[in-house]
Amino acid sequence: MKRFSFLIAAALVLSFLAGCSGASGRGASMTRELFAMDTYMTMTCRGENAEQALDAAEAEILRLDALLSTGSTDSEISRLNAEGGGACSEDTAALLRAALDAYRETDGAFDCTILPLMELWGFPSGTLHVPTEAELEHALTVTGSRHVSLSGSAVSMDPGTKIDLGGIAKGFTSGRLMEIFRSFGVESAIVSLGGNVQCLGSRSDGAGWRCGIRAPGDGASSDDIAGVVTVRDKAVITSGSYERRLTDEVTGRIYHHILDPSTGRPADTGLASVTIVSSDGTLADALSTACFVMGEEKAEAFWRERFDEFDMILIRTDGSIRVTEGVADAFVTSRPCAVIPK
Ligand code: ADP
Ligand code: MG
Hints:
Elements: H1 2-19, E1 29-36, E2 39-46, H2 50-68, H3 76-83, E3 85-87, H4 90-105, H5 115-121, H6 133-141, E4 148-151, E5 154-157, H7 169-183, E6 188-193, E7 196-200, E8 209-214, E9 225-231, E10 235-240, E11 245-247, E12 254-256, E13 259-260, E14 265-266, E15 271-278, H8 281-294, H9 296-305, E16 311-316, E17 321-324, H10 325-328, E18 331-332, E19 337-340
Parallel strand pairs: 17-19
Antiparallel strand pairs: 1-2, 2-6, 3-5, 4-5, 6-7, 7-10, 8-9, 9-18, 10-15, 11-12, 13-14, 15-16, 16-17
Helix pairs in contact: 2-7, 4-8, 7-8, 8-9
The structure holds adenosine-5'-diphosphate and magnesium ion.
Residues 110-112, 114, 118, 164, 166-167, 194, 196, 239, 243-244, 257-259, 261, 285, 288-289, 293 line the site of adenosine-5'-diphosphate (ADP).
């Protein structure tokens, strides 16, 4: 079931890739598909060195996955979690630093110490456990990035605290892929890491890349789209309550995988998804998760303080859309849609 929804998310982006006339620049357009970071990925780029660029990109994805995966006991992050800290690689340190910055900047809405809570709910295993108040309270005592310190590449954590960079890793990775493509002289590329998109340059006809934003909601079929945003050199990263869900067989209640670190429960703010558009993939990923947790009002206030760094598309659970001024002209939808002014 899990893999099924990833495939659909990927298929959605693929259909857009197929609809494009190919990446611009000399050389053939090439596409690579792989399954990594627990999700389905596609990369397309055009250029004389497209194949070597894709080889390097794939190797980098696998390398970062091996560092960051909480699903594998061999990863660097799992070793840090098991040992309560230790020395880590430059990349893990850089990503952890970005996660800790995001924690401060979002007033704790983005919190990479969410792992004990994710485990309590059963997300890593896929078997739902609805926690008791006492269990939640206990897990909350070890949650909070204040329990982590990072000095250079030395990490230390309070007992019981565990790190999960899953809310930021794919955006970091897609940003890294853009650097790799550039280093191979590729001027035109688009990647989708489980529906999280980042692109370089424009299409061969000079137009921007068209990214479909998935329509959330139980009534919607998984490949329905709520709108299309056209961008160049941007990450378009979405966090949605429809992504990974566990259902309580008895009550029929559905629980999704983005937790509010202040309550320990799935964030419930009337938003179905948040899409962040930014030239910084890491920031876009952290903020998609954080703004989902914040809810509409706080997310909009946050955007007003930092509108030069990102834009966002909010889809409410009733299906209506709100889009920030900076991306409004690039966004097309047939749904009710209001522009968020500065
Ligand atoms: P996805 O990975 O589905 O694209 P996100 O970027 O929103 O979506 O990441 C969700 C993942 O981030 C969860 O699976 C979990 O590992 C982690 N996570 C959940 N809640 C938070 C939170 N409040 N802050 C940081 N990470 C979180
Ligand atoms: Mg995220």
